[in-house]
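Weekly sync, protein design subgroup
Attendees: M.S., D.O., the rotation student, P.L. (late)

Item 1: inverse folding check
M.S. brought a backbone from last month's batch and wanted to see whether the design step gives back something sensible before we order anything. D.O. pointed out we never logged the input encoding, so this time it goes straight into the notes. Structure tokens as presented (209 positions):
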């Protein structure tokens, strides 16, 4: 177990989990269960890449992020989802902690919970979430045991010691003014994400051949 200020981090890698699955349950102590390809160090975990410096773990300040990452800070735990709206962090708030995962199936297994077979609206709920993108901030799915699973997308999330959740706005990229600037924006961000994924400090680096 390691610490960042008053916030501690304990990781248990499980080779039986999918290689990039992760789940964290935290207050002042965050317990992380992850697959073998999740990058972890003393105060952070990374299951993806972003348009910033891998060594600095500055993912919450990046305009582009692929995959999920998190870290301990002096203010609490920061969890950062992908910078698109097709994947989510799944969150369950309970009295003794906050449960987060990038896998709904993994989270439900850990909570011994699941879908409510009496409810037939899941497909339309998810379809609405996809269609509304960032215009609908509070997205929830119900479970068989009456829990509310929040689907968190795009912006980063700060979990404080009192278990309150604070939204951290992801910086927006410069608005392209024409196709040339749009193409430059895409190529620049793609290059930065690729460099991050290939960083020498990673245990599992992307190899470009």
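Designed sequence read out in the meeting:
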């Amino acid at each position: 177990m390691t610490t960042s200020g008053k916030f501690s981090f304990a990781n248990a890698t499980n080779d039986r989990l999918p290689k990039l699955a992760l789940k964290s349950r935290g207050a002042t102590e965050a317990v992380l269960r992850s697959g073998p390809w999740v990058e972890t160090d003393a105060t952070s975990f990374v299951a993806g890449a972003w348009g910033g410096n891998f060594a600095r773990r500055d993912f919450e300040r990046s305009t582009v992020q692929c995959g999920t990452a998190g870290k301990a800070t002096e203010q609490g735990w920061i969890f950062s989802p992908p910078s698109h709206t097709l994947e989510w962090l799944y969150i369950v708030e309970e009295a003794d902690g906050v449960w987060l995962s990038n896998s709904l199936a993994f989270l439900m297994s850990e909570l011994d919970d699941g879908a409510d077979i009496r409810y037939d609206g899941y497909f339309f709920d998810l379809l609405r979430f996809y269609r509304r993108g960032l215009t609908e901030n509070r997205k929830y799915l119900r479970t068989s045991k009456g829990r509310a699973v929040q689907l968190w997308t795009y912006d980063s999330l700060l979990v404080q010691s009192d278990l309150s959740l604070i939204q951290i706005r992801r910086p927006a990229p410069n608005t392209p003014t024409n196709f040339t600037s749009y193409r430059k924006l895409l190529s620049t961000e793609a290059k930065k994400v690729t460099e991050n994924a290939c960083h020498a400090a990673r245990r599992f680096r992307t190899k470009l051949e």
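Discussion: The radius of gyration is 17 Å. The chain has a mean pLDDT of 86.
Action: P.L. to compare against the previous round before Friday.
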